[in-house]
Design brief:
This protein is of the alpha/beta class. It has helices spanning 14-25, 32-41, 45-55, 62-73, 91-103, 118-128, 135-149, 151-158, 171-183, and strands spanning 2-7, 29-31, 81-85, 110-115, 162-166. Strands 2-3-1-4-5 form a 5-stranded parallel sheet, with helices on both faces.
């Protein structure tokens, strides 16, 4: 049973790689970013709350995201495995997730750290052309990532759950490396 958490800075290719691997393994790709973007697009109460944080490059508050994740992992298609992309982003969220997975009998997760240098990430995100992807906002998101999310790498390394992949390669090279790593 494959249960993977994808870590890495914004623009490292987490979403692209998680989607490809999820299709390859026939399990759901659960992207908290995509769930949030959809909620903002639909102007749901959660989406309206999240929009102000996203516009300033800040992380959406834990409780909003945790509620989304808990609801999504409880759905039937997630029972046979999943790839979680965009959560956890902080050690406190990782602790919440570990407790949740234990409660719903879905332990055994592994963590993929897709790493890429800041300049590569900035270039990729600017090329994406989203309206919230200005260079100033991207650099702020990287700063937030380095401060709040990067400690997760140590958290999962200490638990021997961490697999690191170089995200500064072609999409095909990353996919191949990822599939080999997951198969082992």
């Amino acid at each position: 049973m494959t249960r993977l958490i994808f870590l890495g800075p914004p623009g490292a290719g987490k979403g692209t790689q998680a989607q490809a691997l999820a299709e390859h393994l026939h399990i759901p790709h659960i992207s908290t970013g995509e769930i949030l973007r959809q909620a903002m697009k639909e102007q749901t109460p959660l989406g309206i709350k999240a929009q102000s944080y996203v516009n300033s490059g800040e992380l959406v508050p834990d409780q909003l995201v945790q509620d989304l994740v808990q609801e999504r992992l409880s759905q039937q298609d997630a029972e046979s495995g999943w790839i979680l992309d965009g959560f956890p982003r902080k050690v406190t969220q990782a602790v919440f997730l570990e407790e949740l997975l234990e409660k719903i009998h879905q332990g055994g997760e592994r963590v993929v750290n897709l790493d890429a240098p800041d300049e590569v990430v900035v270039t990729r995100l600017l090329a994406r052309g989203r309206k919230d992807d200005t260079e100033e906002v991207i650099r702020r998101r990287l700063e937030v990532y380095r401060t709040e999310t990067a400690p997760l790498i140590d958290h999962y390394r200490d638990r021997q759950k961490l697999l690191t992949i170089n995200g500064d390669q072609s999409q095909e090279e990353v996919t191949t490396e990822l599939q080999k790593l997951i198969a082992s």
